[in-house]
TrEMBL record:
This is Cytokine-like nuclear factor N-PAC. Residues 92-187 are annotated as: Disordered. GO terms for biological process: transcription elongation-coupled chromatin remodeling. The gene is GLYR1. It is found in: Chromosome; Nucleus. GO terms for molecular function: DNA binding; NAD binding; NADP binding; nucleosome binding.
Length: 550
């Protein structure tokens, strides 16, 4: 992009690395974010996301002059939403300008009218001047006497009244040394920048000047008064735990995706279900080169429009890509994908990498690892904790085990799809941990359903029960969302009931293998089995509620 003359507040098209040009606004950077050395650049906040970055001036173009050109070359859904956000911003700004100009005109007319009424004639002026000169000396003498009495008089007045009388400011305008009313933010909330950008803390945003187009997704969640939400760390870090596991933590991708430098490796992805679809979408958004395959080919069309390439078979995807991810439903599907006709194994050769993100048992993932490695490939298991919404938002939790070097090679991919990833050691550990996590979640969901039905049959308000839970220690997004599903009778799948039942079954088998009792999981599993018998398999896990009312 050619260099242009720009200034603070300008709307622009900014290009960052391999990302397409995106609409943004030149703003002041946070105080502790230093400007990079070298070529001239501006700090830009992008519309439709929470991205922000220092952009070199030659990578910027004026928004209005190049709007039509940019719209023609980018047809993505998120891009259109960003453009819509700019237009809404302009409409609001125009409305404020019109209101401001109207008010200023009214103020000017009132001042002129007031000046006309208060302007004295020349005779009156002379008389007032002579009278005032005669009183000056008298008042100067009396002024000294009034000093002590004046101070005692002020002491009897309230601080608020004294401040109002003493201040010559216009009403409603705060003094320079007063702090603006601000939205409180957790001290852990930090922005993360890479390359030319340095890490910094977000400055509190004044309420009166808040820009709705840069409203943070997580902050919008915390505004729900009935629910308590955890603050989320927004700093990339690697921390070694006593257990030997490694955690790479990142902010939600909507807040830091401008800081992710996508790997130059070619990425493949197999399986575009509820979870896989959101993952691929975020990989593309972050600028990764992605080739997709799905058993039902029609699901690939949307991602082809977003810039993905189409693979005809799993073997073809693996053979043409450096790292191939897979996310399928269960152990059988995971094995068929690798060992079946035109499967993953046929595309594996030395150096090829395979990452299985499916939730399966440790025996299955160990078998897959062995056959991949036997062909000279590299293997990593990386099941994910979350649901469809978290997948779409790039907020998954990734549990990885296997090839440590491959885990590090997947860093930009994991940052794009999740908020946190953990490396848990040897193959099989991630599968075990994932089953334990889902066992807890599935059992909790069954308990929620049980509590709501018990409230109903004993004449208690289910909504009141939810309000009480949301004010207590159990408050969470999961609790609130699943209870809302039940109260509204909306069981559109965010996490299929049949899959949570599968995970409970596998977790119980894991306990049996080490002779560890799992009575709570076993009881919950029976309730989910009853829900499946009531044809709830393809509904959300919250539909387990129906097992209690039939």
């Amino acid at each position: 992009m050619a260099a242009v003359s720009l200034r603070l507040g300008d709307l622009v098209w900014g290009k960052l690395g391999r990302y397409p040009p995106w609409p943004g606004k030149i703003v002041n950077p946070p105080k502790d974010l230093k400007k990079p050395r070298g070529k001239k650049c501006f700090f830009v906040k992008f519309f439709g996301t929470e991205d922000h970055a220092w952009i070199k001036v030659e990578q910027l173009k004026p928004y209005h002059a190049h709007k039509e050109e940019m719209i023609k070359i980018n047809k993505g859904k998120r891009f259109q939403q960003a453009v819509d956000a700019v237009e809404e911003f302009l409409r609001r700004a125009k409305g404020k300008d019109q209101t401001s100009s109207h008010n200023s005109a009214d103020d000017k007319n009132r001042r002129n009218s007031s000046e006309e009424r208060s302007r004295p004639n020349s005779g009156d002026e002379k008389r007032k001047l002579s009278l005032s000169e005669g009183k000056v000396k008298k008042n100067m003498g009396e002024g000294k006497k009034r000093v002590s009495s004046g101070s005692s008089e002020r002491g009897s007045k309230s601080p608020l009244k004294r401040a109002q009388e003493q201040s010559p400011r216009k009403r409603g305008r705060p003094p320079k040394d007063e702090k603006d009313l601000t939205i409180p933010e957790s001290s852990t909330v930090k922005g993360v920048m890479a390359g030319p950008m340095a890490a910094f803390k977000w400055q509190p945003t004044p309420v009166k000047d808040a820009d709705p187009h840069f409203h943070h997704f997580l902050l919008s969640q915390t505004e729900k008064p009935a629910v308590c939400y955890q603050a989320i760390t927004k700093k990339l870090k690697i921390c070694e735990e006593e257990t030997g596991s490694t955690s790479i933590q990142a902010a939600d991708s909507t807040a830091v995706n401008g800081s992710i430098t996508p790997t130059d490796k070619k990425i493949g992805f197999l399986g575009l279900g509820l979870m896989g679809s959101g993952i691929v979408s975020n990989l593309l958004k972050m600028g990764h080169t992605v080739t997709v395959w799905n058993r039902t080919a029609e699901k690939c069309d949307l991602f082809i429009q977003e810039g993905a390439r189409l693979g005809r078979t799993p073997a073809e995807v693996v053979s043409t890509c450096d790292i191939t991810f897979a996310c399928v439903s269960d152990p059988k599907a995971a094995k068929d994908l690798v060992l079946g006709p035109s499967g993953v194994l046929q595309g594996i050769r030395p150096g090829k990498c395979y990452v299985d993100m499916s939730t399966v048992d440790a025996d299955t993932v160990t078998e897959l690892a062995q056959v991949i490695v036997s062909r000279g490939g590299r293997f990593l298991e990386a099941p994910v904790s979350g649901n469809q919404q978290l997948s779409n938002d790039g907020m998954l939790v990734i549990l990885a085990a296997g090839d440590r070097g491959l885990y590090e090679d997947c860093s930009s991919c994991f940052q794009a799809m999740g908020k946190t990833s953990f490396f848990l050691g040897e193959v099989g550990n991630a599968a075990k941990m994932m089953l334990i996590v889902n066992m807890v979640q599935g059992s909790f969901m069954a308990t929620i359903a049980e509590g709501l039905t018990l409230a109903q049959v004993t004449g208690q308000s289910q909504q009141t029960l939810l309000d009480i839970l949301n004010q207590g220690q159990l408050a969470s997004i999961f609790l609130d969302q699943k209870c809302q599903n039940i109260l509204q009778g909306n069981f559109k799948p965010d996490f299929y009931l049949k899959y949570i039942q599968k995970d409970l079954r596998l977790a119980i088998a894991l306990g049996d293998a080490v002779n560890h009792p799992t009575p709570m999981a076993a009881a919950a599993n029976e309730v989910y089995k009853r829900a499946k018998a009531l044809d709830q398999s393809d509904n959300d896990m919250s539909a387990v509620y129906r097992a209690y009312i039939h």
